[in-house]
Amino acid sequence: MDNARTLNLLGALALSIMDSLNAVVAVQAGHGGETAAALVTLGADPGLSINALRQILNLSHPGTVRLIDRLAAENLVERRPGVDGRTLALFLTDAGHQRRQAILSQRREQLQLALGTLTETERKQLTNLLEKMLTAMTTSELRNFVMCRLCEEEVCPADHCPVEQKYRQLLHI
């Protein structure tokens, strides 16, 4: 089997899916960049600090503050006192939760376009392969959050998520 061709096909598929996802989630989020990922992440992990969100999104601190300022101005995110009294905790508003659901719905529709060509047996095989590949790519806590920053965690809860399971193994939990 030609490994170089397989790698090339995987790269083309990944790029095609990301281009489609970026286009539709940017429309739903109202902005491009990491806006959608911020909304999805904060919905899955309410109460994150700006620094934690910054690391997950791989943004600078000032860039993350500007992003949160914009989301707060649009009534999508609210800041509350953090647990240590020095930091702020970030939470989605009701409007933020609605926007998050719209983003995830559009994401699901775009992913269905790629999956729709597969039979049920092929989907099961793909699921097993994806779980194996995601497990191998989970190397740290931060990588765990980065990989799942646009995940629909309601359909892949922690006890069934290969990324979360590998992360727990890394921590020896």
User: Biggest sheet, open or closed, and with what strands and sense?
Assistant: 3 strands, antiparallel
Approximately what portion of the residues adopt beta-strand conformation? Answer: 5-15%
C-alpha termini separation: 39 Å
Radius of gyration: 17 Å
**Would you tell me which CATH topology of the largest domain applies?**
Arc Repressor Mutant, subunit A
* Strands side by side in the biggest sheet: 1-3-2
Number of structural domains:
2
CATH architecture tag of the largest domain? Orthogonal Bundle
Mean pLDDT: 92
Spans of 5+ residues with little confidence (pLDDT < 50)? none
N to C succession of SSEs: HHEHHEEHHHH
Structural class: mainly alpha
CATH superfamily (homologous) name of the largest domain: Winged helix-like DNA-binding domain superfamily/Winged helix DNA-binding domain
User: What's the level 1 CATH class of the largest domain?
Assistant: Mainly Alpha
Strand tally: 3
Shape: globular
Instruction: Provide a count of the helices.
Output: 8
Could you explain how this protein is built, in words?
- This protein is mainly alpha-helical and 173 residues long.
- The chain has two domains: 11-117, Winged helix-like DNA-binding domain superfamily/Winged helix DNA-binding domain (Arc Repressor Mutant, subunit A), CATH 1.10.10.10; 118-173, no CATH class.
- 66% of the residues lie in helices and 7% in strands.
- The chain is built from eight helices and three strands; from the N terminus they run ααβααββαααα.
- The chain has helices at 3-29, 35-44, 50-57, 61-73, 94-115, 120-137, 141-147, 162-171, and strands spanning 48-49, 77-81, 88-92.
- A three-stranded antiparallel sheet has the order 1-3-2.
- A hairpin with a 6-residue loop joins strand 2 and strand 3.
- Helix 1 (3-29) runs antiparallel to helix 5, helix 3 packs across helix 4 (61-73) and helix 6 packs parallel to helix 8 (162-171).
- The longest helix has 27 residues, at 3-29.
- The chain is globular, with a radius of gyration of 17 Å.
